[in-house]
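[agent] plan:
  1. take the single chain provided in the ticket
  2. run structure prediction with default settings
  3. attach structure tokens to the ticket
  4. add a short note for the reviewer (M.T.)
[agent] executing step 1
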Amino acid sequence: MSARSKARKQALDILFETDIRGTSPLDLLHTRLVGEDGQDARPIREYTKELVIGVTDHRRKIDELISTYAQGWDMDRLPAVDRNVLRVAIFELLWCESVPAAVAIDEAINLAKDLSTDESAGYIHGVLGRISSIKNDLAL
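[agent] step 2 finished; step 3 output follows
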């Protein structure tokens, strides 16, 4: 697994936890940056920080896109894992110029396959494909 794949997984873990708890991703990120010592501590990767901060900064637009293009699903009905996989991938698609769209989509599909269901992976692929195809026309 590449360093960026690990960073995406780590960002997803933080976003998922805060989504379930109803807390701030930035607060949890800050806690993890300064509070974990000892043998079980895992350093927070720079790309993880970039993803968590980016998703947080652009969350309103990201969630609007999910609501618009996740046909037949309300944000509240989407499984928390799927919702946050979509958030990370949409941030990468729209605001991370160094990440090719195909890579962002493929990484999201792999996370969904590993952490959710095969059906989720197909659904996420469809949503991200639609957003990727219109990304140049979106007002960000």
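[agent] step 4 note for reviewer: The chain has a mean pLDDT of 91.
[agent] ticket updated
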